[in-house]
Each structure stands twice: as C-alpha cells, then as structure tokens.
Design brief:
Radius of gyration: 21 Å
Strand content: 5-15%
CATH superfamily: Amidase signature (AS) domain
Number of domains: 1
Number of helices: 16
Bound molecules: glutamine
Largest sheet: 11 strands, mixed
Shape: globular
Helix content: 25-40%
Distance between the termini: 9 Å
CATH class: Alpha Beta
CATH architecture: Alpha-Beta Complex
Order of helices and strands: HHHEHEHEHEHEEHEHEHHHHEHHEEH
Structural class: alpha/beta
C-alpha cells in the first residue's frame, strides 16, 4: 500500500509497473493527484480548471478495462494535465485571457483526443501566459503561477502551469505548447523534462494558434523515458492539420545506450558567451563533460547567424500572431463589450478590454512589421534570417548527432524581476527560438542546480537534433539521467515538504 504522496512521486514508467502488478489502481492514482492539486493549487496556481469528477470516472473506466484485459494503450489509467490552449469538447478553453474567459470548446484537439483514445484520465487545464505569449506565466489574466521550488519565483512560460504541475507532483505528465521555448524553458525552470517535437510531428488541430509556422504541442514529464512514452501517444499524421508530416515516425521507442561512443555532440560556441548566468554555464559545461565521460565525442561547433534568431523570431511570431488573433473580434466568439456606438467601436473596445498588455504589444509589433513599406525591411528580412539558420543548423547537424546548449540564459528569477522591460524578457528566449525557426526537435533536460540566497533552483540543458532525431535525443537524455540522477539529486518534487495528502 502506497500513500498518496508516494504515488505522486512516481514516474509514469513506475506507475505503469505498479498498475500492472495490481499494487494500485487508476482511481487511486487519480485520487492521489487530485488530493495533491487540492492541497497545493491555491499556493502554486498551476491549474485554471480541475476536472475532479470526470477524471475519477475516467479512471474507474480504465480500472474496468484492466480487469477485462482490454487496455487501450500502455498509458491506460495514467492521469494527465493539459495547457489551457488546447480544446476539450464541452470544457472551457481560456488561453488565460479575459478574451476567452467564457469560451467553451466545440470540439476536442487531436492531441487531447489521442490521450483519451489511450485511456488517460484528464486532470484539468493548466495556467499559462495569455495566448502563450510570455516566458514567466506572469501574463496570465487569472493570476501568476508560482515555481514549486521557490514560491517567490516564476515557473517560466508560457507553459508554466504544466511544468509546475509536473514538478510539484500535481500531474504525472502534462501537455504544453511551444512556439519559441514555452515547453522547454518552464521545464528547465521547474526541473523537469520538456520536449518540443519536430514541426509537423504532433497535430496542431484544436490548439489555439499563436504563430502557426512555429507552434508545436509536446510533453512535459519527470523523465526522458516518460516524455518518450507520451510522444508515442500524441505524435502521428493528422489529415486535419495541413502541416502534419506523414514521413515522421510516430513511435518514440528509446534505445538503451550502454555507451555514447560513436555519437558526436556539438557545442555551438555562440551559445556560451555573454549574458549567460555562471551557474548555468557551469552546469551545461559539466553536462558536456559527463556526456564525454560516457563515450560521446564532444566538439565545438558554430552557428554564425545565431545572433539574428531572436529578432527574426519576434518579427515572425508577432506577424503571425497579429493575423491569427484578428479572429477575436467580439462578434463570432470571445469577449464583447456591452456598450458600443457602431461596429468599429464594438471591435475596438472589445479588443481593448479583452486582450492584456503583452498580447496587444505583439499584435501592434506584428501589424507594423507587415505594413506596406516596412514588410521588406522586417518580415522579409526575418524570413531570410530563418532560411540562413535552417541552412547553418543543417550544416552543423551533418557532422553532429546533437547540439548541446543551455535552455535559457538564467534559472528561475523572481516574480516581477523582468516585467518592467519586455526586451529583457525576450532575451531569455535566445537559445530556444532556433528550434522553432528551423522546425527541429529539441528537448530540455535537468542538468544541475543553481543556489541563490539559500534556495536551490534547477538548471536545464538543451539537446537539439535533425528532424527525425527525437528518439536519439531522448535516448541520450535517458542515459544521462541514469548516470547522473544519484549525484544531481534533483528529482522533481522531492524537495517539496508537502507533495499531497497521505492516503
Ligand atoms: N517566450 C516566447 C514568447 O513569448 C515563447 C512563447 C511560446 O513558446 N509560446 O513568444
């Protein structure tokens, strides 16, 4: 018999084993996580909506299937949380915006439907930056989410709620979305694993669009292996997403590397310069040494155009956002002001009141970048930089199996520390945006700690590879986890005094 708090510490792989041995049930696991949410959500605010009743009902159905020997998938019975920008039919989808505060989803996103088809009970919807724009979760219209490692710090963003939920033992695993780092950076700030799959690997159908050429859904998990298990559930061709790529394998089975001999890992020199916090630099360099000790050939490499990535990303993502968010006009759906003189005023006032400051900033930035007279100067230039980056990453990956960099230049900072200057916040996306611009898969894996004012905070490393390399990247990460776990001592939520009520 395990206590609820013990169940909340197990990985998905361990939960699957406990279920198979009949040591626990899906109802018990789901109840354990719901108790953990009840105990911690007020303090952390990782969830915007909790599906207590339906999650337990779905868990009971899973237990019935298990008794009948009719499991739907290896993850049948494992509960899961979803970022609040993915549609679940009949449920609210707010994108943490006043604009969609009362919006009820008319259908279910493909990625979420795949979780359902796999028999995974849905725990609820996670907090985020409004419309996924931000890096700290402070842009949520409903309140900030707190980092489980230190409540006065940000969990990262925009999938801050999903990462905090997994790190605090409030979900065994979660889905986030990533346009420029929104899965990987919060994973790094919260000490968990985050995966941005190759563009086209996971269907975007039913994901509220931010920047359609960059958006991808991916898992946030306690371990690389758990993330891989989730990828095998959610990946795959979907005729409802025109950018879905049928040539990418949906299976994400990992290899067990006894040694990394034969693998070349490149460290782009542009990623280790100015602006990088020393504890992050040291943690990632130590990870490089560790990978070398495990047999990998670790070499220096170069992406000369990397300094242009951030500007290109903010021009392109804002341009796409300005056109994607035009649909929120207070007419078809979304917030509508009560009083207006004419149609123009209805649009203007509804958007003025419905959107938060950061979303408005992106819309204005994007509209400006696309305006005639400036299009060549900004949008076209950014497209050219994107093409250059694609080429240079292709070159680097022709000799390297993976590129190792920091995930973010810092570890989790204090709430409010970056809100005064949006540029400073944008700079934190330096290492994550290239994967979205190039469409390449990228994983974020805990690789060490930083200590500040007596608190220990996690640091993440980024492994990026060729389009079809995700199983390799996660296999390297899993091998690294096996070697370092005892030393790093940063298994999520083990630092938490209160991880859920006892059974
Ligand atoms: N922080 C980045 C931004 O604000 C990335 C967001 C994301 O990936 N959704 O645009």
């Amino acid at each position: 018999m395990r206590t609820y708090s013990e169940l909340c510490k197990l990985t998905v792989r361990e939960l699957i084993a406990a279920l198979a041995k009949g040591e626990t049930t899906s109802v018990e696991i789901t109840q354990a996580y719901l108790s953990s949410i009840a105990a911690q959500n007020e303090a952390i605010f990782a969830y915007l909506d909790v599906y207590t009743q339906s999650a337990l009902a779905e868990a009971a159905q899973s237990d019935e299937r298990r008794k009948a020997g009719k499991l739907l998938s290896p993850l049948d019975g494992i509960p899961v949380a979803v970022k609040d920008n993915m549609l679940v039919e009949g449920r609210k989808c707010t994108c943490a915006s006043k604009m969609l505060a009362d919006f009820v989803s008319p259908y279910t996103a493909t990625a979420v439907q795949k979780l359902r088809n796999a028999g995974m009970p849905l725990l609820g919807k996670c907090n985020m930056d409004e419309f996924a724009m931000g890096s700290s979760n402070e842009n949520s219209a409903f309140g900030v989410c707190h980092n489980p490692w230190a409540s006065d710090r940000v969990p990262g963003g925009s999938s801050g709620g999903a990462a905090a939920a997994v790190a605090a033992g409030m979900a065994p695993v979660a889905l986030g979305s990533d346009t420029g780092g929104s899965i990987r950076q919060p994973a790094s700030f919260c000490g968990v694993v985050g995966v941005k799959p190759a563009y086209g690997a996971v269907s975007r159908y039913g994901l509220v669009a931010f920047a359609s050429s960059l958006d991808q859904i991916g898992p946030i998990a306690k371990t690389a292996e758990d993330a891989a298990l989730m990828m095998s559930v959610i990946a795959g061709y979907d005729p409802r997403d025109a950018t879905s790529d049928a040539t990418l394998a949906s299976d994400c089975t990992l290899r067990t590397f006894d040694s990394l001999a034969g693998l070349t890992i490149g460290l782009p020199k542009e990623c280790f310069g100015e602006g990088l916090a020393m504890p992050v630099y040291h943690a990632v360099q130590a990870a490089a040494e560790q990978l070398r000790a495990m047999g990998a050939n670790v070499v220096e490499t170069s992406i000369p155009s990397l300094p242009y990535a951030l500007s290109a990303y903010y021009v392109l993502s804002s341009a796409e956002a300005s056109s994607n968010l035009a649909r929120f006009d207070g007419v078809r759906y979304g917030y509508r002001v009560k009083e207006y003189a004419d149609l123009d005023e209805l649009y203007r006032k509804s958007r003025e009141e419905g959107f938060g400051i950061e979303v408005k900033r992106r819309i204005m930035l994007g509209t400006f970048a696309l305006s005639s007279g400036y299009q060549d100067q900004y949008y076209l230039k950014a497209q050219q930089a994107r093409e250059l980056l694609r080429y240079e990453f292709g070159q680097a990956l022709s000799t390297c199996d993976a590129l190792l960099t920091p995930v973010a230049p810092t570890y989790a900072y204090r709430l409010g520390a970056m809100t005064a200057d949006p540029m400073e916040m944008y700079m934190g996306d330096l290492y994550t945006v290239p994967a979205n611009l190039t469409g390449l898969p990228n994983v974020s894996v805990p690789c060490g700690n930083a200590t500040e004012d007596g608190v220990t905070l996690p640091v993440g490393m980024s492994l990026l590879g060729a389009r079809d390399s995700l199983p390799t990247l996660l296999s390297i990460a899993a091998a690294y986890e096996r070697e370092t776990k005892p030393n790093l001592g940063i298994r999520p939520y083990e630092h938490l005094r209160k991880g859920g009520e006892s059974a």
